C-alpha cells in the first residue's frame, strides 16, 4: 500500500468540493485547494522512507498486474518532479490569494484539475494513461487561460487550444504506432521489448510522442504558444504553466528517450536545444513586457536541460531542471509584487524601486544572478556540469551554451535595471505579503544552498538521474520480476 | 490496406484544414478530421477478418479463441479518445462563441 496513489483521488475530491462550495463562502475555495495540495505533499513525504529502501514504488491499479493493468511507478526521478510540481503549486496558490478576486470557484476547481493532470502524468507507468492525464491537464489549462474573459485572453486561449489539441493528437498517433509495433502500452514492457522487436514504426511512434511532449515543454519550434498565453493570464497561472508545464514536458522526454526507448537522439536533441536556447534568449532581449520576458527566459533555460540530455550529461540536466523551477518561482513572485505595485507589466513604465526596498532588491538580485549562472548560485552549479559534459563530447555545444549565458546575463540585467534603477527616483515602498515573503526567503536560500554546496548536491542529482537511467531495475520492478 | 490509406488521407486533410483555414470553426472541424484519422488507424490495428467478440465462453478452446478473437484494447482506447475529443471540441466551440460575442469575428 503506497500513499502516493492517494494523491490523484485527494486532488479530485478537492475539485469536487470546490465545485459544490457556493460563491457566498468565498475564502473556502483557497482553503480547500491548499489543504488538497498539503495532503498530497504529506503523502509524498510518508512514502520517502519506502522509496529510499526499495528505490522504486510500484502500485497496480485495482490489483491488475502489468502488462495487463495500469500501474503507477515512482522512482527518484518522478518523485523529485512531483515534489517540485507541488512546491510550485503551493507558491502559485499563495500568489493567487491576493491576485484572484473574481470567479474564485472556477479558478480553483480548474487549478486543482491542472494539478491532478500534472501529478498523474508524473506518476503513471502506462503511455495511454499518460496521454489521458496530459489531456486532463491540457483541457484545464485551455480553460484557465480564458478564465479572465478578456478579449485577448480568449483569443490566446483559442490559439493555444488548437495548437495544443493538435499536439496531443500527435501523442495519440505516436501511441498507435508504438502499440501497433510492440503490442503493449506499459512503459516497462515497451522498454523490455524495444531492444529486440523494434521496427521503423516504433521509431516513428517515438518521434510523434516526443514532438507532442516538446510542445508541452515549449521547446523551439513548438514554443510559439507560451509567451502570448503567459502574457494574458494571471501571474499565479503563468508560474504554474512555466515551471510545472516545462518540467513535466522535460520529464516525459527524459523518461521516453532514456528509460523507455533507450534511443540515440543526441544529434536531434542538441540541434533543437541550440535553437531553443538562442531563440528564447534573443526574443527575451527584445521584449519589454516582464511576463513575456520571463516566458522567453524559461524557454531559453529549457534548452539547457535538453542540451544536457542530448550530451548524455544527465546529472547536469536534472540539476538544471530543479534549478529552473526554483529560479522561476523566485522571479515570478518578484514579478507579481512589482506588477501589483505599478499596475502594469510593461517594463518601460517601471523603475526606481532600488530605494527603500532592500528585501525585494536582494531577492531579485539573487534570482537574476542565479538565472545567468553567476558562481555561488544554483544556476552556476548546473550549467557548469552541462558545460563539462559538452567539453568531453562536443565542444561547440559548450561554446554555444556559454554564449547564450552571456545573452541571459544581458536580458536579466535589463529587467533588473528597468525595475530597480532607470529614470524615476523613489517609486515608493513595495508591499509584500508575509506569505510571499516566506516563499521568497525559502527560494533565495535554496538558490544559494544549491549553489554553495555544489559537490553534495551533484551527488544527490546523480542518484536522481541514476534512477532514471537504471532501465534494468525499472523493468524488473514494474513487471514484478524481482 | 485500404483502411490505412484512408486514415492517412484523413490525417492529411485534417492537418491541411487546421493549418490553412482562418475560420476557427473550420479549424475545429479540421482537428476533428485529424483525430478521426487516428481513430481509424487504431481500429484498423485491432481488426481481424471474420473475427469474434473477445469474450471467452466455457465451451471454447483457448487456441481457437486466440486465433479468431479481435483485439479489444484499441476499441477501449478509441472510446476514451472520443470522449476526450468531445470535451475538447465542446470547450473550443464555447470559446469561439465567447470570442464571437466580444469581437464579432470568427477568427482569432
Structural summary, described in words:
Chain A has about 475 residues and is an all-alpha fold. Helices cover about 75% and strands about 0% of the residues of chain A. The two termini of chain A are about 20 Å apart. Chain B is mainly α and about 110 residues long. The interface between A and B is medium-sized, with 26 and 29 residues.
Topology readout:
The complex is a heterodimer of chains A (482) and B (108).
Chain A: H1 7-20, H2 28-46, H3 48-54, E1 56-60, E2 71-75, H4 76-99, H5 104-123, H6 127-145, H7 151-182, H8 187-197, H9 200-217, H10 225-231, H11 235-261, H12 266-286, H13 290-310, H14 314-342, H15 358-371, H16 378-393, H17 395-420, H18 434-452, H19 454-469, H20 471-479
Antiparallel strand pairs in A: 1-2
Chain B: H1 2-20, H2 24-46, H3 62-68, H4 73-103
The average pLDDT value of chain B, as a whole number, equals: 90
Please give the order of strands in the largest beta sheet of chain A.
Answer: 1-2
Shape of chain A: globular
Quaternary state of this entry equals: heterodimer
The count of strands of chain A amounts to: 2
C-alpha geometry of chain B: elongated
What class, by secondary structure content of chain A? Answer: mainly alpha
- What pattern of helices and strands is seen along the backbone of chain A? HHHEEHHHHHHHHHHHHHHHHH
How big a fraction of the residues of chain B is strand?
Answer: under 5%
- Unreliable stretches covering 5 or more consecutive residues of chain A: none
Q: Name the helicity range of chain B.
A: over 70%
The helix-and-strand class of chain B reads mainly alpha
Largest beta-sheet details of chain B? none
Spatial extent as radius of gyration of chain A: 21 Å
Q: Ranges of chain B with pLDDT <50 over ≥5 residues?
A: none
Amino acid at each position: 500500500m503506497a500513499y502516493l496513489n492517494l494523491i490523484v483521488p485527494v486532488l479530485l475530491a478537492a475539485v469536487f468540493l470546490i465545485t459544490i462550495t457556493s460563491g457566498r463562502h468565498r475564502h473556502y475555495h483557497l482553503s480547500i485547494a491548499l489543504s488538497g495540495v498539503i495532503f498530497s505533499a504529506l503523502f509524498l513525504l510518508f512514502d520517502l522512507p519506502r522509496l529510499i529502501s526499495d528505490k522504486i514504488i510500484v502500485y497496480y491499479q485495482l490489483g491488475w498486474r502489468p502488462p495487463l493493468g495500469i500501474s503507477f511507478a515512482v522512482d527518484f526521478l518522478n518523485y523529485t518532479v512531483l515534489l517540485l510540481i507541488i512546491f510550485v503549486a503551493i507558491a502559485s496558490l499563495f500568489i493567487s490569494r491576493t491576485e484572484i478576486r473574481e470567479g474564485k470557484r472556477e479558478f480553483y476547481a480548474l487549478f486543482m484539475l491542472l494539478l491532478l493532470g500534472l501529478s498523474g502524468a508524473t506518476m503513471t507507468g502506462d503511455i495511454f494513461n499518460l496521454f489521458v492525464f496530459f489531456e486532463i491537464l491540457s483541457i484545464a489549462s485551455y480553460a484557465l487561460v480564458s478564465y479572465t474573459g478578456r478579449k485577448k485572453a480568449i483569443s490566446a486561449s483559442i490559439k493555444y487550444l488548437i495548437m495544443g489539441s493538435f499536439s496531443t493528437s500527435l501523442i495519440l498517433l505516436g501511441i498507435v504506432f508504438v502499440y501497433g509495433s510492440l503490442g503493449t502500452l506499459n512503459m516497462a514492457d515497451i522498454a523490455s521489448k524495444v531492444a529486440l522487436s523494434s521496427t521503423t514504426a516504433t521509431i516513428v511512434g517515438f518521434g510523434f510522442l516526443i514532438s507532442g511532449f516538446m510542445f508541452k515543454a515549449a521547446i523551439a519550434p513548438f514554443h510559439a504558444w507560451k509567451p502570448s498565453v503567459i502574457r494574458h493570464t494571471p501571474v499565479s497561472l503563468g508560474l504554474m504553466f512555466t515551471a510545472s508545464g516545462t518540467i513535466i514536458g522535460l520529464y516525459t522526454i527524459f523518461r521516453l528517450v532514456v528509460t523507455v526507448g533507450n534511443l540515440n537522439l543526441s544529434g536531434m536533441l542538441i540541434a533543437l536545444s541550440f535553437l531553443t536556447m538562442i531563440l528564447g534568449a534573443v526574443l527575451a532581449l527584445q521584449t519589454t513586457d516582464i511576463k513575456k520576458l520571463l516566458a522567453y527566459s524559461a524557454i531559453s533555460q529549457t534548452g539547457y536541460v535538453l542540451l544536457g540530455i542530448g550530451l548524455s550529461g544527465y546529472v547536469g540536466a536534472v540539476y538544471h531542471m530543479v534549478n529552473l523551477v526554483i529560479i522561476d518561482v523566485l522571479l515570478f513572485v518578484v514579478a507579481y509584487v512589482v506588477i501589483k505595485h505599478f499596475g502594469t507589466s510593461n517594463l518601460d513604465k517601471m523603475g526606481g524601486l532600488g530605494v527603500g526596498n532592500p528585501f525585494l532588491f536582494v531577492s531579485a538580485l539573487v534570482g537574476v544572478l542565479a538565472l545567468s549562472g553567476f558562481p555561488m548560485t544554483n544556476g552556476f552549479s548546473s550549467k557548469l556540469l552541462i558545460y563539462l559534459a559538452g567539453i568531453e563530447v562536443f565542444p561547440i555545444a559548450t561554446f554555444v551554451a556559454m554564449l547564450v549565458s552571456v545573452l541571459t546575463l544581458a536580458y536579466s540585467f535589463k529587467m533588473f535595471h528597468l525595475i530597480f534603477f532607470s529614470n524615476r527616483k523613489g517609486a515608493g515602498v513595495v508591499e509584500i505579503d508575509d506569505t510571499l515573503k516566506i516563499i521568497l526567503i525559502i527560494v533565495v536560500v535554496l538558490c544559494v544552498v544549491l549553489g554553495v554546496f555544489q559537490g553534495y548536491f551533484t551527488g544527490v542529482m546523480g542518484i536522481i538521474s541514476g534512477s532514471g537511467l537504471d532501465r534494468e531495475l525499472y523493468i524488473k520492478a514494474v513487471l514484478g520480476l524481482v | 490496406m485500404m483502411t490505412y490509406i484512408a486514415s492517412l488521407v484523413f490525417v492529411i486533410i485534417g492537418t491541411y484544414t487546421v493549418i490553412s483555414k482562418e475560420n476557427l470553426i473550420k479549424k475545429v472541424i479540421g482537428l476533428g478530421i485529424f483525430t478521426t484519422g487516428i481513430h481509424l488507424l487504431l481500429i484498423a490495428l485491432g481488426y481481424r477478418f471474420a473475427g469474434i467478440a473477445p469474450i471467452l465462453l466455457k465451451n471454447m478452446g483457448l487456441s481457437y479463441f486466440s486465433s479468431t478473437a479481435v483485439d479489444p484494447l484499441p476499441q477501449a482506447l478509441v472510446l476514451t479518445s472520443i470522449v476526450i475529443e468531445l470535451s475538447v471540441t465542446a470547450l473550443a466551440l464555447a470559446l469561439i462563441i465567447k470570442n464571437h460575442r466580444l469581437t464579432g469575428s470568427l477568427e482569432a
